[in-house]
Amino acid sequence: MANFLFVLSRDDNEAATRSFQFAKIANDKGHHVNVFFVDGGVLWADNTRDLGQKTLTGDCPNDYLPYLVENEVPFGV
Prior knowledge:
Elements: E1 3-8, H1 13-28, E2 32-37, H2 65-70, E3 75-76
Parallel strand pairs: 1-2, 2-3
């Protein structure tokens, strides 16, 4: 089992979607995962934010974030 730290430093929908997606995949495979928000990424800690904005590939942060929360993946700000 490996340790993964995903750092989101931009207020960018595509970057957030990929970070959450990769964190979910790693957690699904049994790895220890942490997600950390810095700089512009702290805006993703706002629980009133719209997480349904689609990326060019058709997915969105809300496709992955609920899984991370349900599986108690640690988030730091």
